[in-house]
Amino acid sequence: MSPTVIGFIKVSLISLLVGVVMGVLIAAGVFSGAGRPSLVTAAHAHVNLLGFVCMLIFGVAYHILPRFSGKPLYSEGLATAQL
Ligand code: HEM
Ligand code: HEM
Predict the structure, then answer these.
(1) Of 42, 53, 41, 43, which Cα lies nearest the Cα of 16?
(2) Number of structural domains in the chain
(3) What domain range includes position 62?
(4) Smallest-distance ligand from the CA of 25
């Protein structure tokens, strides 16, 4: 796996850890006293969906799509820039 793919997967797993801890804290009512608890929900949703789900999809896609198409990635540098 390229360093970029590994980077995407690392970001994804760190996000999952952060997002799940946030979810448990929300469920435990830790933020119920906060002025805008909906902001915490939105942060939890995006850490999980953008951080975990999307980064894992990008990482796996950069690894597997060049193999499906039988052609090397157009630019490893652009993938690293996206990461
Ligand atoms: C143990 C893990 C998790 C716990 C305990 C948890 C808990 C919660 C709770 C309590 C809420 C409601 C917050 C509120 O009403 O303000 C919530 C919302 C949400 N969670 Fe999680 N969550 C977990 C994992 C995840 C994961 C893995 C994802 C996505 C991949 C996710 C996506 C969302 C989204 C999108 C919302 C907002 C839903 C909406 O718009 O109403 N959660 N979560
Ligand atoms: C950089 C990219 C993104 C930006 C700037 C963004 C921005 C926002 C904003 C401003 C809201 C709040 C809307 C409102 O409360 O009226 C929102 C809600 C939401 N977005 Fe995103 N979003 C992004 C990416 C994504 C992605 C990739 C996903 C799913 C894969 C997603 C899923 C959601 C969901 C489920 C909610 C509702 C969350 C809640 O109940 O608090 N977003 N987004």
Answers:
(1) 53
(2) 1
(3) 3-82
(4) 1
